[in-house]
Each structure stands twice: as C-alpha cells, then as structure tokens.
Amino acid sequence: MAKLSSSEEALTTQFGPHLNYPPREGYPGRDEPDKIVETHCCFCGMQCGIKLLVKANKVVGFEPWEEFPFNEGRLCPKGVQRYLQNNHPDRLLHPLERAEGTGFQRTDWEHALSRTVSEIQRIQSQYGPDAFAMLSGVSLTNEKSYLVGKFARIALKTRNLDYNGRLCMVSAGAGNKKAFGLDRGSNNYSDLKHAEVVMICGTNVSETFPTLTHWLWQARDNGAKLIVVDPRLTPIARTADLHLPIRPGRDSALYGAILHQLVKHDWLDHEFIDNCTSGFDETAAAVKDYDLDWAERVTGISKEKIMRAAEWWGRAKTSFLMHARGIEHHSKGVENVISCINLVLATGRIGKPYCGYATITGQGNGQGGREHGHKCDQLPGNRDIENPEHRRYISEVWGIDEKELPGKGLTAYELMQAIHRGEIKGLISICFNPVVSLPNNNMIREAVEKLEFYCAIDFFLNETAHYADIVFPGSLHEEEEGTVTTAEGRVTRIRQAVTPPGEARTDTEILLELARRLGAGKHFSFGTSEDIFNELRVASKGGTADYFGITYEKIEKNMGVFWPCPSLDHPGTPRLWEDRKFKTPDGKAHFNAVSYRDPGEVTDAEYPVILTTGRVVSQYLSGTQTRRIGRLVDQYPEPLLEIHPKLAAQYGITDREIVRVVSRRGSAEFPAQLVETIREDTVFVPYHWAGKKSINQLTSGHLDPVSKIPEFKVSAVRLEPLGKRAPLPKQDSLQPSGGSPGHPSPKPPPVHELAQAPKESAP
Amino acid sequence: MLLQFKQEEEFFMDPQRCIGCHACEMACAECETNGQTPMVSVDYVDRYYTPQTSVQICMHCEDPACAKVCPADAIQKDEFGIVHSANTARCISCSNCVYACPFGVPKKAEPMQLMIKCNMCYDRTSVGKKPMCATVCPSGALWYGTREKMRELRPNSTPVNTFRFGKQSVKTKVNVMMPKGSTELVVD
C-alpha cells in the first residue's frame, strides 16, 4: 500500500522499539505469584525450559527450571530477560488501520476483519487466488504452523505461502532429505557426552545457542577434541582444540578436502559404506583432485590445520558433527550440508552411541515449524505438496477434493520478487519481518510499497508492519497453549501463562475467524490448541515427521517426546538410524557428490572485501522482541563493523571510525571495531537492526538452487572510511558505579492512548 | 526437605569457560535486594586481541580483607563462610573495602553511597537453592554443587581456593577450576 503513511521516526516514536526495564524493586507480586508456569524460552531452537512467574495476568519474573533435562536451569541473557516482552509498553492492544499522514489509527475488530476479508476477495477475484500471498514464521508453535498451512491452502486458496524458515533451516532440510530421506538432527545432545571428536561448522554456538556450550564442554571434560570452523575467532572457537578460520563461501572445499584425506588414508568404514549407503564412488571421485595445496589456496586455511582436522576426524572411533547457518546461508547451502554429511557417512559414525550428526536449528520452532506445512512445497508430516499420494492423504484428512489443494508456491525471497514485479498484489504476514530479515532489503521495501493490500498479525509493530493497511494484535509465546519441537527433535509443551492483554487475541483465534469469514469455517472448527495438535497428529501419520503417537499428556509426563513417534505405545526416537534403515526410497543413506564452486558473488577490484553477517548473543533475529528489552540493547547497542587491524590499516581505518560499507545493492555506515579475531579479508556486521542500521541493505539475493536460501554469509563490498569517529555508546548501564543503580522505567504513552479509536466503525 | 543452607555445596568458577554472554549479570540484577544492580561482573580482557571475557564474583575469603579494613565493622562473615554485603546502618561509605579487596569485588553504589557486593544469593542459598548466576550460567564458568559431583563432571580440572598475591596468600570459600594437579593460583 504505497509508501509509509507516516515517517519512520514518527512510527518509531509511537510504536517503538522502546526499552523495557523492570522496576528497581522488581514487578509487584513477584514474590507471591498467582502461578508458576513451566514453559520454554521464546527464542532459539534450544527451547530452554523456564518458569514464568505470573501475577494478575502479567508475567512478572522468572525462575530457572532446573528439572528440564536439556538445560537444567541454564539460560542465556535473552532467556533471562525474555519475560520483559510481556507487560511491554509497545504491546499492540487493539487492531490498527493505516491512516494517511499520521501512521495508524485504532480500529475495531469487526472493521479490521471485514476489510481484510473484502480486500482478499477483491484481489483474488481481480487477479486470481495466487495473487494473495501469506508469509509465516517458525517462532510459531507446531499448532499454529499447521494451522497457517491449512489456512493458506483452504481458506485463502493460494499456493503462495512461505515462511522465515527459508532464511534458516531449508539448506539443512534439503541436505538431510537427500542423504537420509528425513529432516531432523540424527541425535540428541546426550550423544555429545563421550564423542572423541566434535566438529562444529559455521556455528557461533556461544552467542547463538549459548546453552549448548555446556554440552560441548561436557564432551571436552571427557576428553573430546573440539574443531571449530568459522571465519571469526568466536568465543567457542577461542577455546577449541583446533580453529579453522575459513574464507567465507569456501566450505564445501574444506569438507571435500577432508573427504579426500579420508579416502587417501583409508580412514573409512567399508562395512557401513558397502551395506548401508549408496553413491560413495562418485562422491570420492568428485574430490579426487582436492589435495591439501588446493584446499589451502581455496579455503585460506593452512594445510597443516586441514590435515590435522582430517586425521582427528578420520581416526576417531566416536564423533559428532554439527553445523548451522554459517554453512547453510549460501548459494551452495545444500552442497555444504551434504559435504559435511559425506564425512559422517564415510566414517560410518551414525546411529550409534556418541556418534552423531545434526544441524543446529536456529529458531524456536525451526524444527517443528518446518515439518507441518507452512512451507511453499510442503504438507504436514513433512510431506511433499507435489506428490500425488501425499496430496491425496492430506486432502482426505482435511475433507477436501484433492483438486482444490493448491500446488507448490514461491519461496520467501522469490515471493517478494513477484510482489516487486506486480504479480502478487496482496499479503498477510505473521511472525515474519522481511524488511529487516531478508537480503537486499531495499528491494524488499520497494516490493512491500507496491502491495495493494497488506495485513500483518503481530504483538509489536515490526518494521514490515509499518507498511500494513491493517494490523491485528496477536499473541505472544506465553499467551497460547501449544507445542514446539526443539533442535534435538524433542516435542515440548508451551504453556499459556497469561491471556492476551487489551483487545489483543490469540493468533489462532484470528486465523480461525478469518477462515470462517472466508467461507471455510467447516474446516476450522477447532476449540483448543490441543484439537489442532490432534488433527496434526493424524495429518503427520505415515509421513517422515510422524507425530501420531505424541499427545499433550505424553509430552508433559516425559518432559518431551522425540519424533518419529508413530504409535501411542511408541517411546519416541532420541537417536535416529540405530536400525540402519534410512528413509530414502532404497533404504540406504546417500552420499552425494559435491564439486566445489565459488559463491554467488566473489570479490573484485571494485568490491575487494568479503562481508559476512551473523548474530550477537544479546539480540535475536530481526530484533522485533529483543530490540525492546533494555539490558539486551545496552549490552550491544548498535551494529559494529568487525575488521582486522591489517585490513583497517590498508584504509587508514581507526577504532570507532565510521565506515561506509558499500555493495552492489546498497550501503550503510557502521563504527569500526578493530579486532584480530577475524580473517584479514573479511568484515562482519550483525544483522538484527532495521532501517539505516540494517546490513541486509547490502546482502545479496543469490539463492541456493535447491533450498532457495539467500546467501547472507558472502557478499563483496568496498569500504569507505568517513574520517569521523562514532560517539561512544553510553556507559554500560549494567555497571553499578558511575550512575544510579537500576533504570528509570521509560514510560512512553501507551499505544492505545496515542491512536484514538474512530467514533464509529467504518462501513 | 529442610530448607536451609547446604554446607556440602560449594561455588566453582572457571573463567576460561566464560563466553561473555552476561546471563549471570542479568540474572543477578533481577534480585530485588540489589535493586537491579548486578553483583557479578563480566568484562572483556582485551577485545582487540581476543573475545575472552572474565567473570568475577565475590570469592568469600576465609579472612576477608574487606571486613578487616572496615572501620565501622559493617562487613560480617557468617557461620557458613558467606561474607555479607555491608550492613547499611553501619556503612560509612569510606571505600576502604573497595580498595582492599584483592579481587576488586565490592563497589560503592551511587547514589546511596553504600558498599554493595555479592552475598552468594543468601536469599536463595539459605533455603537450599543455588545462587542465580551459577544456575543460569550456560557454559559452566560458574557452577554450584558438591565437590564430589564436580570431580565427576570435570576429571581433568582441580578446584583451587588458595591465591597468592606476592607474599600474601588468600584462601577463599569460592573455588577456581585449574588444570589437574594445581594447588594454588599465583596472581602476581
């Protein structure tokens, strides 16, 4: 709907991010809560157990949940502060409607719903059903992920549904399906405990999955060697036995070179390769030229280090390999993943105690949310929307004619490109902030500006929702019952601690009401989240992600159940592949040959420096939640440009000097942070910020041909020092000296007071 | 179960494992006793060279320098070896404790001008719970439990509670994890 209805500054003043700090003495009632709710953190894929303290329908504090087996009370700073998203001054409390020149005005539910439905109907009758798209996200529970999938296909009748897992898990998912025929970490983390070698590839564990650090140290305390592959010396790499500082975008060259050494030295499990796998010969042939000299040249890692990694991996009897976005956010994301899996299969170390392999799922429900159908090519149970048998089964469960079930739609970035081209005219989004999180976001913003109608469901007004015509105030994590599936594949229970405040409604209620008004009510007669889960169980039955044997009661009794769990008497599957029966059509694990190729963009004279992006420990994804929590912002208030002193010296860049970083797609200015802990050819900027501070103005839209994940981890840039020093950020307010302890609670006017309700509902 | 101080449980620090996440600081600040001020500090050693951070809590010395130099007798060690924050009625804000502590722990809190420091979550430990920082620490840099369990968990490390500053030796209630076989930590 065209440009912003008000300036970014005005919208930010009204809707935040404002910083929430607890009062000095804590929230009233914390010592005598009405209830203590055992639930989980709302952030990353670890899904740490946490107890929320509730008083008068408000979350007033937390207690560690020491009995929950994964984290035993441990939390990262985001987990400690997670309760402050509740009771937040920026919380949306009633529906909003775009108001030209002034931002948004308060509206009522009837108007918001009826206008949305009439716009959907208008756009679809004018341009066809696929001209209205939906974007979703995997901070949503399994129930909501399933519901979104069903809603888009049956109520919206569009094929164009995709989700923010497209920026997260899809490379790992595609790689795992190719190799194993199933997409889940093969092991839970207890298999780390006695692994001899642990190799973590492209994962800044201590900042992005801090509570996993304990498990790595547990392995090391028992004698494991830790290998970390990362262009930066991250906190976990600092203590590793071997750090391989790889040149961004060259991952498959490293793993190909290691496979070359495994073959050369016969560090192979021939029994496993012969009996349980296929494709080994072609895969080995593909790396026959990848000797150490070649690998050193391509990866920028010394051949001694590569050889040491190969030898440690090759000679080990037990091992665990994990990877994350560092190898997956690439135009070769799937190739990088399968080149890692090839190392696991070549040594046969899978399906046995302390022999593990897993991607580390990033988002809270990155695992469960990628299984049950709000992905453009997928149906529940991790079924394929183009497989006739799968379509038939789900159509039966949903009670529709299979012909009514839309086909495969566009992936997230491609969907935005289609909006930009004018092919998609309407959008509804939930749990996704593409203006911050997608690459090349100047294009994304232009695309959103072209929408004829855009409706957002969120609990805070995220930066993409600034462009909305209608905003529905939805629910926070702690405002609905449900389940999520952790990075380990453990299905856990999310508890409703409080009900949505003001006029806000649960996401589920909003979707069900829209479905009813779109004429699909008979397919959406769920009374509770558990009703939705029970339908999900049936819909997933027989799929690779089979939840049929999992019930709320069983999850609660066992503190989680690992899928697959095909029957009610099944205990769940913490470790996959013990029976060596893989889910591929031939029942074997598949090697996949990987020939190295360069990333989508390589440096040249005009753009001579590699830019890579990632996260910091105190922020989460696009920052919709964490940029509103005071102490998390204080810890790392602004994005910095990490640069090696030698590279900085080439440009005369000094510490805290503002540097303009320019790519083919855009530019942005950041204070330089000179550190010797990054490669000399690479700079790093974290991506959690919006607007002028967003590094995604620069990142590229190169996509993996299979997974369609964008290549966030490699762009070519040039650096332009501006000769100005950035002002020092305010003193760390965590420190007691030099200022008053505690914080004044900022008190922006509540949103509902700023935007007056119209006297009457619009017709 | 009787809710009381578990004398068999001890505090173990392993600063080498600190990942600089600040979860301990933020969890500590949640305590209403501190008024949102953390009693544990996490700092970069030198970010230019390394992401290494160092975490510091009160070591609860056997013979606490802070208490010895306090002219108002405001700082007391209790029967469990916990060195408590200054008694606010007695503290005269002289900062002697701030300068005397070999670990740099006590702070003078503005604007009350009173000394504050970690009391090992006395509100929690006195009823058998673990201190908040050691409960949430995701890396095991801060850990609280029995010596026996620690030995089982970290067979290659030894808890040390003797620190040598020049000719002076300081013994503490809190242990620091050192390579196996170590007996003291020489600071100078």
Write the layout of secondary structure elements.
The complex is a heterodimer of chains A (763) and B (188).
Chain A: H1 8-15, E1 35-40, E2 49-55, E3 58-64, H2 77-81, E4 96-99, E5 103-106, H3 109-127, E6 132-136, H4 142-155, E7 161-163, H5 170-180, E8 197-201, H6 205-208, H7 213-221, E9 225-229, H8 235-238, E10 242-244, H9 251-264, H10 270-276, E11 277-278, H11 280-286, H12 292-299, H13 303-315, E12 319-323, H14 325-328, H15 333-346, E13 355-359, E14 378-379, E15 383-384, H16 388-398, H17 412-420, E16 426-430, H18 434-437, H19 441-450, E17 453-458, E18 470-473, E19 482-485, E20 490-494, H20 507-520, H21 529-540, H22 552-558, E21 561-562, E22 589-590, E23 609-614, H23 630-635, E24 641-643, H24 645-651, E25 657-662, E26 667-674, E27 682-686, E28 715-725, H25 751-754
Parallel strand pairs in A: 6-7, 6-16, 8-9, 8-12, 9-10, 11-22, 12-13, 16-17, 17-18, 23-27, 24-26
Antiparallel strand pairs in A: 1-2, 2-3, 4-5, 4-18, 14-15, 19-20, 20-21, 23-28, 25-26, 25-28
Helix pairs in contact in A: 3-20, 4-20, 4-21, 5-15, 9-12, 9-13, 9-15, 12-13, 17-19
Chain B: E1 9-13, H1 23-29, E2 41-44, E3 53-56, H2 65-68, H3 96-100, E4 107-109, E5 114-116, H4 122-125, H5 132-136, E6 142-146, H6 147-153, E7 157-165, E8 168-179, E9 185-186
Parallel strand pairs in B: 1-8, 7-9
Antiparallel strand pairs in B: 1-6, 2-3, 4-5, 7-8
Keywords:
heterodimer, A: 763 residues, alpha/beta, 7-stranded mixed β-sheet, 6-stranded mixed β-sheet, 25 helices, 28 strands, 29% helix, globular, B: 188 residues, 5-stranded mixed β-sheet, two-stranded antiparallel sheet
Describe this structure in words.
The complex is a heterodimer of chains A (763) and B (188). Chain A is α/β, with parallel strands linked by helices. In chain A, strands 5-4-18-17-16-6-7 form a seven-stranded mixed beta sheet, with helices on both faces. A six-stranded mixed beta sheet of chain A has the order 24-26-25-28-23-27. A five-stranded parallel beta sheet of chain A has the order 10-9-8-12-13. Chain B has 188 residues and is α/β, with parallel strands linked by helices. In chain B, 17% of the residues lie in helices and 25% in strands. In chain B, the strands form three sheets. Chain B has a five-stranded mixed beta sheet with strand order 6-1-8-7-9. A two-stranded antiparallel ribbon of chain B has the order 2-3. A two-stranded antiparallel ribbon of chain B has the order 4-5. The interface between A and B is large, with 60 and 45 residues.
